[in-house]
Design goal:
The protein has about 425 residues and is mainly β. It contains 4 helices and 19 strands. Keywords: Membrane, Transmembrane, Transmembrane helix.
């Protein structure tokens, strides 16, 4: 593989319907398999009651990401697959070392029962003589169903597609949301960490993991509450967390990929293997009562419009570019699965992910032809001295001009209630 390539595996329901895609991190950060299982036969728990064993991505990270001492002959910037000293990400690796495996839900997942991943189980000693091995599951469930979603379910069972059966009670494979299971009391994972969108987009600063507050919401994480059932074979969302997610993007509980908002990003280190900084987004200005789509700053600046001077500066700097804000459709999930003797289930178990279609489906206004975001910053790359109107869509420009003539109400559309 070469730099920037990725690999995906299709997941079907046993009848040829593609329900999901398992995608690896781009090379050299990740290798093709996309998901791996790590079993610690010595220790049950890490800090805070987190399982020492895990199901996670096949990513790698540099030694300086976690403050690790590189092996002899290596330097701290080594660690990716293109170096002589690759460093695989482990269950206890530092924050932001790409631990979550990615499953993208496809349209058929809404009609075929869900996305089924089958895991083989082999005999091995359990840590500390326990009857089961607890695995921390670190994943992202991404919405490419083409529909707005209202939530999700995770189930454990056997079989795939129409042959899937939830395991039920009295078995040795169980799910857990970690509530009340922290050593000494409390929850293993906080409510805001079990089913949440990116903290870089939504939520307060939480050093050292999240040194800066979210771009869209500096107070509230976006995501879902969840709960396990009595049988311990299902974890389901129970309600949406409060955040700006539902107001800025037209009222959706969970956007599909085709409706990702557009942003301006800054590549602050000229490194394609690191995440770039979101500096602006294209949307309907929340500070006005009419529909006026434009480039806007984040919550820290009260969603103020970008000026022509700022856009011109971005356009004349190759480190800035326009792209889709992918993490608005990617939900991070954290939970546990306890695995014991599964000989009665043919030595396998199935992890089923079920996206739940929202009852309300619509096209966000920023996706309408008259309101769509520019695809390139080049139109703002003049030598300067231009008008700030370049930051707005054409309809807004006309509305502003007629507004000066007292005719703005003729063309300005009132915003839909949200």
């Amino acid at each position: 593989m070469v730099d920037g390539e990725t690999f995906s595996s299709v997941i079907d329901d046993g009848a040829g319907n593609i329900t999901g895609k398992l995608t690896s991190k781009v090379w050299p950060v990740g290798e093709p398999a996309g998901v791996k299982v790590l079993t610690d036969t010595d220790t049950i728990y890490e800090n805070n009651g987190k399982p020492a064993s895990c199901i996670m991505s096949t990513a790698y990270h540099t030694y300086d990401d976690g403050g690790l001492t590189p092996p002899s002959g290596a330097v701290t910037s080594d660690g990716f697959l293109d170096s002589t000293y690759p460093n695989p990400t482990m269950c206890d690796s530092a924050f932001q070392t790409h631990k979550r495996f990615k499953v993208s839900a496809q349209p058929a997942a809404l009609t075929a029962g869900g996305i089924d991943m089958v895991f083989n189980v082999s005999d091995s000693p359990n840590a500390e003589g326990a009857a089961q091995t607890r695995y921390m599951v670190l994943q992202k469930l991404n919405n490419y169903t083409g529909k707005h979603l209202s939530g999700f379910k995770i189930q454990v069972g056997t079989g795939v597609g129409a042959s899937f059966t939830a395991i039920g009670t009295g078995t040795t494979v169980e799910l857990s949301d970690g509530i009340g299971e922290k050593t000494g009391g409390g929850d293993i994972w906080g409510e805001e960490d079990r089913a949440a969108f990116s903290a870089g987009l939504f939520g307060p600063a939480d050093p050292p993991k999240h040194p800066d507050p979210g771009f869209f919401d500096q107070t509230n994480r976006a995501g879902f509450n969840d709960a396990e059932n009595a049988n311990k074979d299902q974890i389901a969302s129970t309600g949406a967390l409060t955040s700006a997610y539902t107001t800025l993007f037209g009222g959706s509980k969970w956007l599909p990929g085709k409706y990702m908002p557009t942003g301006i990003f800054f590549d602050d280190d000229n490194n394609p293997d690191t995440d770039d900084q979101l500096v602006a987004w294209w949307g309907d200005n929340p500070n006005t009562s009419i529909q006026d789509h434009m480039w806007l700053k984040g919550a820290a600046d009260s969603y103020a419009p970008l000026s022509y001077i700022e856009l011109n500066a971005y356009a004349n700097n190759s480190q800035y570019y326009i792209g889709k804000i992918e993490d608005t459709v990617n939900l991070g999930l954290t939970y546990a699965v306890d695995v014991g003797d599964v000989t009665t289930t043919t030595g396998t178990f199935t992890l089923r992910m079920i996206p739940i279609e929202d009852t309300i489906q619509y096209v966000p206004t920023y996706m309408e032809d008259a309101n769509k975001a520019p695809t390139s910053l080049s139109e703002y790359a003049g030598s300067g001295g231009g008008s700030s109107f370049s930051a707005y869509d054409n309809t807004s420009l006309v509305a502003m001009i007629l507004g000066f003539l007292g005719l703005g109400a003729w063309v300005a559309r009132r915003k839909l209630s949200k």
